[in-house]
Amino acid sequence: MKLKELYSKSIDRQVNPAVVVGKQDAETIKIEINEYVFTKDLVDNLYRFLHDIVHKQDAKTSIWISGYYGSGKSHFIKYVYYCLNPQTSEQAIDHFIKNAAEVADAFSDATPSNIKILKNKIAEYEIDTIIFNIDAVSGQKNEKEKITKIFLNQFNAFRGFNSTNIALALLLEKHLDEVGSFKDFKKDIYQKFKKEWKTDASTLVSLKLTDVLNIAQKYDGDIDLDSLRAKLKSPDDITIKDTLIPEFKDYLSKKDDNYRLVYMVDEVSQYIGVNTNLLLNLQTIVEEISADCDNKIWLACTAQQTLDQIIDSTEIHGEDFGKILGRFETRISLQSQDAAYITQKRILDKNSSGTEELIQFYDKNKDTIDNQYVFNHELYSSYVNRDQFLLAYPFLPYQFRLIADVFDSFSGIGYVIKEVKDNERSVLAITHSTALNSSNEEVGHFIPFDAFFNQLFQRNLTHHARGIIDRASKLQSVQEDGFAKRVVYTLFMIANLSDTKRITFPANLDNLTLLLMDQPDVNKLELQNRIEKVLDLLIKNSIISPENGDYRFFKEDEIEVAALIQNQIINREDRITAIWEDIVINILSLQRRVSYGSNNFSLSLKVDEKYIFKGGDIYVFISAFENTTPAQKALTNNKNDLVVCINEWFFNHPEILSEIELFTKTKKYIRQNSDSATGTRKQTIEMFGNKNSNRKTDLIKTFQTKFIETPFISGQQVINPADLSSREPAKRFAEVLQGHFSEIYKKNKLAPSYTNDELKKQAMTHSQTSADKTLTTGESEIENYLNTYGQIMTVEDLIKNFLKPPYGWKDTSSIGLLLKLGLKRKRQFEWRNQPIDFKEFVEYALKSNERNAIVIKDIVEVGELEVQDAKRAYLSIFNEQLSDQTDSYIVFDRLKSKLSITAKKYASYEDNYSMKPFGKHFHEIGKVLREWLEIREPKQLFDKVIERKDDIRELNDTCKDVIEFIDHQYKNYETIQKFERQNRQNFEVLDVAEKANAESLSDYLEKEDRPGDRFPQMKKIYEEIQNSIKDQSKNLQKETRSAYADIFVELDNKATELKVADVSGYYDKTSKLAEIDKETNLTHLQLLKANAGMFRTDAVEQIIKASQKDPENKKQIERFDIKATQIASEEELDLHLNWLRSELMKKLKENKIILLVKE
Question: Is the entire prediction scored with pTM above 0.85?
Answer without folding.
Answer: no
